[in-house]
Write a structure and sequence with these properties.
Length: about 140
Amino acid sequence: MERAWRAHGQAWARRLFSTRSLTIVPVDHPNEETMLRLLTRLIGLLLLAGGFIALIVDGTRSIAAGRLMVTSLNRGTSAVFPGLYQSMQSSVENVSTFLWDPVLTTLMTAPVSVAFGGVGALLILLSHRRQTPLYYARR
């Protein structure tokens, strides 16, 4: 009985891997565009996760304080990277004081969760491959 099963298995393997039925499909190797799309999506997901974590932290702080507490980009950046924030401010002011004072200070008042989540969602949307439109024949 065992010999019959072994012979059946060998015949099945010969049929499966015969050169007549085996078709070789070329593998689509990832190119630079695919790798850049993957990197963009990864950065977008990390930023989206960071925005979600910032939202949870702000929500927890708001519940503990009994009032709405939101961490702005200004406060978050100066708390985490104080040297980087000061150097960024001085270098942008050297270029243009108008760029720092009304433009970037207004943008830095946005909540961390909204800024990270928005940029992350934008990167994820930009990393999707455009689908080719379907064309239907008209009669």
